Structures are given as C-alpha cells and as structure tokens.
Amino acid sequence: MITLDLNHAFLKEDVKSYQDQVRAIDEALQNGTCKGNDFIGWLNWANNYDKEEFSRIKEVAAKVRENTEVFVVCGIGGSYLGARAAIEMMNGLYGDKKPEIIYMGNTFSSTYIAQVMNYIKDKEVTVNVISKSGTTTETALAFRILKQFMEEKYGEDAKNRIIATTDKARGTLKALADKEGYETFVIPDDIGGRFSVITPVGLLPIAVAGIDIDALMKGLHDGMGEYGDADLEKNAAYRYAVARRILQNQGYDVELLVNYEPQMQMVAEWWKQLFGESEGKDGKGILPDSVCFSTDLHSLGQFVQEGKKVLFETNLYVETPMIDLTFPNDEANEDGMNYLAGKSVDWANKMAAKGTLQAHEETGGVPNILLTMPGMTSYDFGNMCMFFFKAIAMTTLMNDSNPFNQPGVEVYKKNMFKLLGKE
Length: 423
Fold this sequence. Notes:
Elements: E1 3-5, H1 19-31, H2 45-48, H3 51-67, E2 70-74, H4 81-91, E3 100-104, H5 110-120, E4 125-130, H6 137-154, E5 162-166, H7 172-180, E6 183-186, H8 200-208, H9 213-226, H10 236-249, E7 254-259, H11 265-279, E8 287-292, H12 301-306, E9 311-318, H13 345-363, E10 368-373, H14 378-397, H15 409-420
Parallel strand pairs: 2-3, 2-4, 4-5, 5-6, 7-8, 7-9, 9-10
Antiparallel strand pairs: 1-10
Helix pairs in contact: 3-8, 4-8, 4-11, 9-14, 10-14, 11-14
C-alpha cells in the first residue's frame, strides 16, 4: 500500500474541506455517470478480467521465452510505456532475465529504427504489435518493416512469431492478424491506452520478461480496496488528488515527480502520460514533469532550490530496494570516504533524499508531497497503478474535465498526415 505524507506540502486549505465534493465525484465514478464513463473498465478490472485469456498470456509468454532472444514490443504511448515501466522497475536496467525486450513503433527516427533492425538481424526474434486500430502511424510504419523482416527471416513460420494485441473484432490490425493467423490478445473497449498496462497490452510483455503477473493483479485487486473508500481519512489516493488541486489553487502549475531509483525513470514517463493526457485539457491541468535524484540535483536542483516558484514536488520513495550493498573500507582512504565504510548504499540514498527534502522545503520554500511504496515488486507495481488511476480520475473530475479522452492528440496527426501526403 502506498502511504501519503502531506506535512511538507504547505497546504493553505484543509483537505477534508473537500469531502463533500470528493464523495459526490466518487459516487458518479462508481455508478458510471461521470464524464468519460465509457472508459472506466479499469475500476473493476481486477475482478472482471478474462481469466481464460490471462492463462493464455502466461502460456504464450512461456513459449516465447523458450525460443526468443529478443522480444520486440511495437507500440506507442500506453501501448508500450506501461510495460516498459513495469519491466524496468521490477527487473532493473541491467537484469539477467531473458529474452531482451526492445521497443519499436514509438518514433519516426530513421537512425533508431535502422539500428534496431541491424541489432536483431542475427537473433531469434518474436514481435508483439500493439494497436487498437492498426493505423497508428508510428506503430504501423515500424510494423511494416518488422513484418517484412520476419517473413524474410522465418518464411511461413513468421506467423508463429508475431503476436497482435488489438481490438477484439475490427480494425486494420485485427483483420491482418486473422488473415495471417497471428496469435491475438484483446485491448478492452472500456479501458483507454494510458490505463492499459493492466490488460494484455502490458501483461504479455511483462510476462515475457519473467515477471509474476498474478502478483501484479493481486496488487491491483488489493488497491481496489485500499483506495476504494470515498472517506478522505481512509483514502490516500483521493487525499493526494485533493492536495494537487489545492496546490494549483495556490499558484503551483507544475508537478515534479521525484524518484531516487534509475530503474523508476520509465515509471515517471508512464506517469507523465497518465497525468498529462488525463487532465491537460479545457485550458486546465498541472504540467507533469519528472526527475531522478540525486542525479538530477546536479542539473535541475538549482532551479528547484532557487528558481521561480512554479512547481511542487511529489516524492515517490521506495522503502526496500531490489538489491543493496555495503560500502567498502579502504585503508589508504585517499578519497576521504571511509566515513561511509560498512554502511548500506541504500541508506546513503535515503539520507540524500532526507537532506534534499529539508533543503527544498526549509530553504527553498518548495511544497513537497511524500509518497512511499514498500518495494519494487510486481505486487507493488499493480498496487501503484490503482493508486495513480484513482488519483488522476478524482483530481481531473474535480476540474470538471473528462479524465479519459485526449482530443488534443489528434491535432498533430491531422497536420502530419497532410504533410505526409496521406489522402
């Protein structure tokens, strides 16, 4: 369970004064009468997911792990961010689990695409293409290249090494998958892309990476209860949602998600899509940004400490690291570091976090929200998903905006299609 500490947030309003509004919004969310109610399938997904398909995900993942050196996830936005966030958080950046996971379909960069294709040419490859429609341009462009590569490399057997996660009944990719005989998994109609990591969109790559998806779903399920009460004294996700609105009322229009673990950087990227696409509309919302301390204290730390007071920090702490080690003693002590000898490196990391909080709060005058998760396990990831899902739904509905659409994303596509010559 994620715990919340607002004692460093400089709130000028009492969170509990929003109780009536929160209760009314929660009732609309639970009853399916809120804005965007066509896309609230995530609310009860931990109870309602297709158990047969879930078992098939585990079976297919096991088969992929037997014959694959590189698993290519071809998708953009929610079709890859959540899976990558989970895999890197749980396996680390230099883990030894196989197969290697590589991501395509999220960029037009010719250099990136060419280098990936060159890297995988002599390896055993399986591709998972993820798209509701099959026409998302970045993904469709990469998949055409991948499809031709797979057919040239494997011939008739290519169809057994391409998996499509797409609409259950319609769309370009679904039609192609049926024609070619690809294994398919379903993107639910009532769960939007940025919430889809808990569906086959995220679960298949996560399972291929050797991660326990049963534990992930257990964390998600437990989060339904832990963050399911409309009472603000009992629901940390809703208190966080309210605190964000209070801080924006105080003039803070930027939220900086802070973590102290490099393997959590893609969690921050996933969080930025979840929060940015959900509440950045109607001329409203808080700009989501992120840093990894202590690394970024040597780049953005100066601005946070003494720059214009436009931001607040939300610190995502982890109680127990995936791995810890002890700092060694050196008799010569030429670097003067023996004062740390025998101490845990994670302890040093936590002292850096404590000192940074004190500097930014007391000297810098920057509001800080503290979130603490127990660890970086599969269970923790599932639980964290429900925490942020509930929080962003509540905080966006408090702004009287639809948390589940993204109309602004379509504007760049129309301009791009015109310039590319698409009819």
